[in-house]
């Protein structure tokens, strides 16, 4: 049985995931129309890094709930935070050494996706 608070957290995480995905995709298409393909891909990859890592973190953060599972919840939360950091580092290495992406559009894509996360959580009614 999923606890009510965990269910609300899962629903919020899913909403943030879709909101981030839509904004990053639409902005990437707009950049593709007005700029080069490589710039649009760099922006999209930066946003994708944040979307993927937030999804992984949310999966681990909302796996357990309730006072009886507090120890499992804390371990899972910590595991999700560590895994999120490892994935960000790995994707950054791939972006700069493997794909040779443009740094500025990549960081802007990451920050736009991050801003969308905050905006989606603020916009959500309680």
Keywords, separated by commas or semicolons:
126 residues, mainly alpha, 0% strand
Report on the architecture of this protein:
The protein has 126 residues and is mainly α. The chain has one domain. It is built from four helices and no strands. The chain has helices spanning 4-34, 37-61, 70-98, 103-123. The longest helix has 31 residues, at 4-34. It is flat and about 55 Å long. The model has no long low-confidence stretch (mean pLDDT 86).
Write the layout of secondary structure elements.
Elements: H1 4-34, H2 37-61, H3 70-98, H4 103-123
Helix pairs in contact: 1-2, 1-4, 2-3, 2-4
In brief, what are we looking at here?
Helix content is 84%, strand content 0%. It is mostly helical and 126 residues long. Helix 1 packs antiparallel against helix 4 and helix 2 (37-61) packs across helix 4.
Question: So what's the oligomer here?
Answer: single chain
Backbone shape: flat
Quote the beta fraction: under 5%
First-last Cα distance: 22 Å
The beta-strand count equals 0
- Compute the number of helices: 4
């Amino acid at each position: 049985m999923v606890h009510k608070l965990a269910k609300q957290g899962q629903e919020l995480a899913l909403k943030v995931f879709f909101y981030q995905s839509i904004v990053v995709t639409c902005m990437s298409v707009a950049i593709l129309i007005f700029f080069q393909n490589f710039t649009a891909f760099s922006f999209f990859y930066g946003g994708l890094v944040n979307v993927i890592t937030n999804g992984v973190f949310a999966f681990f953060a909302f796996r357990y709930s309730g006072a009886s599972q507090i120890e499992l919840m804390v371990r899972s939360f910590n595991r999700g935070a560590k895994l999120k950091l490892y994935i960000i580092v790995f994707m950054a290495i791939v972006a700069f050494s493997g794909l040779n992406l443009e740094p500025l559009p990549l960081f802007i894509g990451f920050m736009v996706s991050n801003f969308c996360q905050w905006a989606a959580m603020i916009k959500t009614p309680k």
